[in-house]
Amino acid sequence: MARNISNTLELYHLDSLQILDLGNNNLPGTIPRCFGNLSSMVKPSNTTSPFAMRNENHFAIGSMESATQVMKGVEYMYHNTLGLLAGIDLSRNKLSGGNSEELTGLHGLIFLNLSHNHLQGNIPIKIRDMKALDSLDLSMNRLSSGIPPAMASISFLSNLYLSYNLSGKIPSGTQIQGFSPLSFIGNPELCGAPLTDDCGEDGKPKSPILDNDDTKDNGWIDIKWFYLGMPWGFMVGFCAIMAPLAFKRARRHAYFQFLNEMKDKLLGYNGVCNCN
Q: 20 to 30 A Cα–Cα from 170, which one of 16, 31, 57, 138?
C-alpha cells in the first residue's frame, strides 16, 4: 500500500469506480481533492431497478457479483443491488486536515466512512447535498463543531455514527433525533434528544462537564490507591487465616487433618489394604 494517500491520485481517472476501500492502511496526509472527480460517484442512480448497473457500458447484466461492507462490526452484503452501490471507506488511517468539501460533491455516494482518523474542523454544510447517503460514519476524529441542521435533509440516512467528536446541541425537530444514543456516545459536550442530557439556553449541556485533565487525574488517583491497598489487603487476609493456626493447637491439628482427608479423597485412597 502507498505510504501517503496522495499517491492514489491516479484513481480519479477510473471513471467507472463505484467502491473505493482504502480503510485500515495507516495512510497519512489529507483527503485528496481529486476524489471529488470520481465521476461514477457524482451522479445518483436515476433508475428504480435493483438490477441496473450504474455504468451500463462497462458491465454486463450477467456478470454482477457481490460486495461486502462492514460498519461497526455489522456486515452488509450486496448482491443484486451491487450496481446501485457507490461508497468510500477511508477509515482507520492517519488522515488529517478538515473534511474535504470535494467529497460533498459526490451526490451518488451510498456510504461514506471516515472514522478513526485525525480530521479536524466542521462538518461541511454542503453535506446536505449528499441526499443518497444511507450510511455515514465520522466517529473517532477531532471535529470541533456541532451537528449542522442541514444534515436533516439527508432523508435516506439510516446509519449514523458521530461518537467521540462533537459538541453543542443536536438539531431539534429532525430525523437525527431518531437515531440511537449510541450514535453520539463519547460526546460529553453534546446535548439534546436522543441524549438524556438537556441543553441550556447557551446550547451547552446543563450537567457539569468534567475537564479531560480532571478525568485523567481521577483515574491516576484510583490506580494509585489500588496499588497502595494491595499489600495491606494481603497482610490482613494472611493474618486472618494463619493467626488462629499459630496460636491454637486444636485448630492447627484440625486444619492439617482436613488437608490430609482432602488429599486422600482426591487421590482415591481409602486406607484399606486388600492382602492375599
A: 31
